[in-house]
Each structure stands twice: as structure tokens, then as C-alpha cells.
Amino acid sequence: MKRTFCYIVVCILCSVQSIAQEMTDLTRIRENVRSRRVSSYDRSGDNHDNLRRIAPGGKRTIFDVKGAGIIQHIWITMGPEPDKLSRNDVVISMYWDGNDFPSVQSPIGPFFGQGWNDTYLFTSAPLAATPANGMGLVCYFAMPFSNGARIAIENQSATEISTLYFYIDYAEMKQLPPNTGRFHAWYNRELTAAEDSVENEHWMFGPGKPNKNGRHNYLIADIKGKGHFAGVNYYVHSPTPYWYGEGDDMIFIDGGELPALHGTGTEDYFNTSWGAPQAPYSTPYFGYPKVNGEKGFLGRTHIYRFHIQDPVYFDDSFRFTIEHGSMNVLTLDLASVAYWYQSVASRIPAIPDAAARRPRPLIGPADIHRWRNEWRKSKGNDPALWGN
User: What InterPro entries has UniProt attached to this entry (predicted)?
Assistant: First the structure.
């Protein structure tokens, strides 16, 4: 009870500090700033307030503004529903300062906190997926630009986007304040594998192979330039009920060969402890909006951590990696969206294509029973076989 009470007190104090800062900002009267909005409202005055019919393979620009400003709020929803149109196959790209390359690119679902093509409620300070059932996609990350901004939606699915509704609210300015960074976001996905083909978690099959340089870790971000890291949505699909979260976070700053920030385990970086929770929970800056809890850690889990109060700073480079299992010993289907700010709008790496992003099928009790049947056959179908 004492531990729970202390946790609640800490959360309240952090929220009060954040709200106090926001209220201080709200009291400041700005010069030469006007609120603007680009939305999908019906220009005819009727009530067909959406863009329609983005064909498979089609791309539509939804925001194209000249000059300087800061995007403050984005809301998007679309049809048909996710069981017909995968949010993992619709890509959002953002271009700053007249560049022809994106500084933000991700499948729209994972960007806003909806992994794979699942739908569920997600609440954090900078991002949310709202009722009904995660269909409203919301972003409050500030997105500055000094020489124009463009946002595009690309339909990489085989299904037409029948309706697309959106608000994009921004502050129009004559010029940005000094030292204003540019927002970046990048999606990655990898099917990891045990280095020696043995899933040797917790030294189950012998001694481990120590990992000091993170060479085979899963990559969350690899950034060149000056800026600060702002957080990650991390999506784990585990094909086994065994605990996947012993992998350390290893963050390399400004070209160091060893991690400048070395953590003690996946759940520790995400501010939890002793494994994953059995029920979803959310705080402004970290949480588990999607968990499993029925069959150990089998299946899909979404975890997030935002560095709003504690940005991670770098001058020349930043490389964020995390082990898949302790010492990279587990096969996991991992995906992530990393968020950061840089001194200039920079080109991000290409994201995996639609085929490479396709979610792997869920594994259930019937599959496990089939594996058990094959094991029994390999042991001669002895009726006394139990399994341990």
C-alpha cells in the first residue's frame, strides 16, 4: 500500500509541475502570432467534411503551408474501419522548410499509438488514440517550420480510403524563436533472431554470450546531428509465453563505442518493474496501453516512454538500441516509432515497405498443442509423457 501511495504522489507532483509550466506559458502574450487551421471541412458549406476516395497506391497532400509557424495539434480519423482498411498500410509523411524529403514517416497507426492493425484506447501527453476504440488519432507534439510545411497521406493498402477527416492547427509567425528544433519521427520493424539459433533466455541452455557493444541489438533510432530524443512507441510481438523483457536499453551518444546510457532491462527503461503488467495502464509519459496477460507474454504488447521532462541530449549523433531478450537471444517481431528534435530538418532513413510491415499471425493454444504433438511423436508417443 505504501509503494502504491508513493507512486500516486510522484505522479501527482509531476502532473502539477507540468501543468504549472503550461499555465505559465499560457499567460505569456505573444507578438505577431496568429492561430490558423487546415481541415477537411466541406468548402461548399454542406456537411461532407472529409476528403474522399484515396485509391490504393494514391497519395494526397492534406497540409501545405508557406512561411513560418508551429503545428500544435493534429486530429485524424478515416474510413472504412480497421478490419477493412489497415492503419499499418497507410503512411503519413511530413516535410519541413521546403525539403523534398520527409523528416517524419511512419504507418499512421503506429505513429499515433496503434500497433500492427489493432485498435485500442491509448492516452499519453503527446499522443492519443481515442474513442470509439482508438479510431480518433491525436498528436500534440510541436512541429516547427521556418520555410513551409507539407503533410501527405499515402494509401499503400489494397483498399480505398473512402473518407479522411482531419484538423491541423498551427501558429503562424513571422519567424521562429532562436534555436527552435525540427520534429522528426521514424518507424522501424525487424524480426530478430537468436545469434546462435538457440533462444537461451535466463541461461536456460547454458552460459550466455555477453553483449557490451550492442552490435546485434534492435535499432530504435540512428540520428546524425544535434538535438534531443523525445520518446518511443515500442511494439513487441512475442511467439512464446516466455518473458521477453530482459533486454537492456543501450544508448550511444556522439560516436561513443560503448553506451553512454546503459539500462538494466526493457521494463526498467519503460518505468515498470518485474515483468509486464497484467492489465493496461497509461500515464502522461509512459505506460502499457496493450498487454496480454492470458498466456504469459505470448502475443502483442505496446509500451511507450516519452522524454518530455527528461530529453536525451546529443551534439553529433544519437543511436538508441535495445536487446531482444538478454544478450539478444530471442526471436521477436519488433516495431517502433522514435520521436526527436534536431537543429535542422534532416532526412530520415527509408521505412520498411508494406510487405515488410505486414503483421505476423498470432500464435494461440492450438498452435502450442500442435508443437506438443510433434514433441510427443519425436519421443515415441509414450502415454506417460508430460512435458517437462
Answer: DUF2961
- d(CA 311, CA 46) in angstroms, rounded, equals 45
Which tens digit of pLDDT belongs to each residue from 232-283?
A: 999 999 999 999 999 999 999 999 999 999 999 999 999 999 988 989 999 9
Q: Environment class of residue 388 by beta-carbon count within 10 Å: exposed (0-12), middle (13-18) or buried (19+)?
A: exposed
Kindly state the average pLDDT of the residues 347-365.
Answer: 95
Q: Domain 181-383, what fold?
A: Jelly Rolls (2.60.120)
pTM summary value: 0.93
d(CA 388, CA 206): 17
Across all residues in the chain, what is the average pLDDT? Answer: 92
Domains 32-178 and 181-383 share a fold: yes
- How far does Cα 292 stand from its chain's mean position? 18
Is 150 in contact with 94 (CB distance < 8 Å)? yes
Residue 307: CB atoms within 10 A of its CB come to 17
- What CATH number has the domain spanning 32-178? 2.60.120.1390
Q: Which residues pair with 128 in a beta bridge?
A: 123, 138
The residues, ordered by sequence, that sit 6+ positions from 22 with a Cβ below 8 Å of its Cβ are: none
Three-state secondary structure readout of the chain: CHHHHHHHHHHHHHHHHHHHHHHHHHHCCCCCEEEEEEECCCCCCCCCCCEEEECCCCEEEEEEECCEEEEEEEEEEEECCCCCCCCCCEEEEEEECCCCCCCEEEEHHHHHCCCCCCCCCEECCCEEEECCCCCEEEECCCEEECCCEEEEEEECCCCCEEEEEEEEEEEEECCCCCCCCEEEEEEEEEECCCCCCCCCHHHCCCCCCCCCCCCCCEEEEEEECCEEEEEEEEEEEECCCCCCCCCCEEEEECCCCCCCEECCCHHHHCCCCCCCCCCCEECCCEEEEECCCCCCCCEEEEEEEECCCCCEEECCEEEEEECCCCCCCCCCEEEEEEEEEECCCCCCCCCCCHHHHCCCCCCCHHHHHHHHHHHHHHCCCCCCCCCC
Strand partners, 287: 282, 304
